[in-house]
Design goal:
Elements (H helix, E strand, L loop, with lengths): L2 E4 L2 H10 L15 E18 L7 E20 L4 E12 L2 E4 L7 E20 L2 E20 L8 E19 L4 E11 L4 E7 L4 E20 L24 H7 L24 E5 L2 E2 L1
Parallel strand pairs: 1-12, 7-10
Antiparallel strand pairs: 2-3, 2-11, 3-4, 4-6, 5-6, 6-7, 7-8, 8-9, 9-11, 10-11, 12-13
Amino acid sequence: MGAVALIGCAHAADLAAKFPATAPVPLPAYDWSGFYLGGYYGSSWSQSDASTPNFTGGTVDINSTSFTAGVTAGYNLQLSPIWLVGVEGDFGYFGGGQLFQEFNDTSSAGEKNRWYATLRGRVGYVTGPSLIYVTGGVGFVHLTDTFGGDETIPLGPIFSSTTTAGGVIGGGSETKLSRNWSTKTEYLYIDGGSDHTFQSNPFGTAATTNFTHSFQVIKTGLNYRFDGNWDGLPFFNGQMLASTLAAMPGSALRSRMSISQPVRKATKTSTAPASPAAARPVTTICCGRSI
């Protein structure tokens, strides 16, 4: 009777025993719902135009850049794994402003920003631990406008303070650092609303003066979401987000293959030539078929 060698199928069965099939690990879900508080810092820009339409008819441009910092509070409602809506408010210092005279002019023009606040809605798209969103609402900026005077008399300019109110639009991105901590970067455009009108004294003459304003803010902040469980500072004692590498296809197989196996040393064996009488036909069977 010829020798029978069972190969192929036995080899496949051996591989299946070593690397059993495992169910795919689900990707981690990220929860954004709840109240949150945070702080931010960034840069601010303001642009103002001053004019005296019944006096000189010209326009003076006043531009400035500065620093901004403040606090944020809001609430998110996650509607699905990828969509959320929310409301957010912020309040902070809004720097910037200047007082100057045009070339060969004896009157002054300027503005000085004090603080700003916004109340906005948010609509966001969740992509893993990150959130991309657009935002819009109403914004307020408290400032002081300055115009007039005549240094040849001498006569100082008129100062007038107001709080502007106008629309806000912007967008940004936010990324989780841990379960409750997240960092964000945001851009806002704030319209100054209606003109700020007051009586000034250019060259010592009473004149109606109009100021228009617009503002821009770009800021980076850190938020903390309240979910009933304290989450320590990330990178210190907080729980970092789980890596999604374990959920990638084939990761279970790679992890099993990475386990060190004992190395078997090759041994030399000597075989004598088989005699014609000892040679026997070999029949190979694979998956129930003779080859």
